[in-house]
Amino acid sequence: MVHRRNVLAGGALALAGLGLRPASAAGEVVVGVLYAMSGPSGQVGVDARHALETALDIVNADHPDIDLPNAKGAGLAGLGGAKLRLVFADHQADPQKGRAEAERLITQDKVSAIVGCYQSSVSATVSATCERYGVPFLCADSSSPSLTRKGLKYIFRPAANDEMFSAAMFDFMDGLRKKGKTIDSVGLFFEDTIYGVDSSTVQRKLATERGYKITADVKYRTNSASLTAEVQQIKTAAADVLLPTCYTTDAILLTKTMADLGYKPKAIIAQAAGFSEKSVYDAVGDRLQGLITRGSFSLDLTAKRAWIATVNALFKARAGRDLNDNTSRQLMGLIVLADALDRAGSTDGEKLRAALAATDIPGTRTLMPWSKVAFDQGGQNAFADPVLLQYVGTQFVTVFPEATAVAAPLWPMNA
Length: 415
Known about the structure:
Elements: H1 2-17, E1 28-35, H2 42-60, E2 83-90, H3 95-107, E3 113-116, H4 120-133, E4 137-139, E5 155-156, H5 162-178, E6 185-191, H6 194-210, E7 213-220, H7 228-237, E8 241-245, H8 248-260, E9 269-270, H9 278-284, E10 292-295, H10 307-319, H11 325-344, H12 349-357, E11 361-362, E12 372-373, E13 387-392, E14 395-400
């Protein structure tokens, strides 16, 4: 047994020396995972780990009661039953750290693909690094539209981008207008990285096209120590709807500052991120009753697909909380990647890229309200239909679109 292990190890080292990935030869496929595991966004990384390890269990073990790709049966049949193995790295929300960690995962850990990265600014540098090495990058949750519009061949995003999410927000407001609600103006409030800037660009364009006056257009420094001046601006502007784009710590600070300054907007429709995180609602949920956020997922879907409750229970056993917008996208991202690996029957970068490009998963075999998963030439899934969720009591309920809504929206939020 010792001799056999040494032979396998020696073979793996020889392949590594040639720059090849020995994953299938060792009976496993190695996938790199890049998230901020420390710092202000550390909890997002911790939750992402729970989500990805849940997906790992779904693929590697036999789950006949779950209707996700590769849930039934153990391992990847197309790779002789090979199991997935995840290698985690901490990018600390730093784009250059993300670039360095991606390169290390590729050159030293010999990963077949990388999944990440939450912060769009980090996904931008990681996707460029993966492109250079010919290694697929599964962009699970970063939502800046520009990520899949750079002509890269190796980036794939199953979830919606902020253009798609924002269109849903404005479709929702247009519908309320038709029902007699007075919504004349919006206020933009966004952080200063690619995520916030891209989001605001899309919302500015949609507001202009659809006849909404922009009474506030405020960019702030991410992880600011104070937002008093900025909140005073948006309070003075008194928009009918506030559209914030914030990560977790900024979402908490924004909410507290609004309360301190006595600012209660008629409605808030958030670009998820921090406003989908449990830590925000644990801290300031009593001040966010009626807030609406865009999303990719809602536990309401268990009414149509009972097995989603089984997946949620697997995740909750690890994380101590339910799946949310972020963790559902992360979990589904690894499922999509595993599906492509299974069909490719190879860990070769080009063959895996081709399999990802040929993805065609029915929406009913996802956790999401999507029509399906199929990628355009830029690597974006154009069928990732968003939902809008409203925070009521201690939970989110789906309020848009009407086909999937389980409740009418509370409008205004402070009614």
